[in-house]
Amino acid sequence: MKIIHCADIHLDSKMSANLTKEKARERKTELLTTFQNMVTYGAEQGVAAIIIAGDLFDTKNVSATARNVG
């Protein structure tokens, strides 16, 4: 059985610590893209489960973009 295990994704994080607003936006985009790529890869490879330990989202208020990724 194939599984993917990841942890503490923190989609939709403000990324405000030590980053400029531009770099924070860039990092958020990279994170969403990487997560989408992981889900796509799992589907293509016949992965039975993706196990996410820790937090998938950073806050209770999640953007529609982050909610619909994958």
UniProtKB/TrEMBL annotation:
Q: Where does the record place the Calcineurin-like phosphoesterase domain?
A: 1-64
Pfam families registered for this protein in UniProt: Metallophos
Q: What Gene3D superfamilies does the database record attribute to this sequence?
A: 3.60.21.10
For this chain, one GO molecular function annotation is:
hydrolase activity
Q: What is this protein called?
A: Ser/Thr protein phosphatase family protein
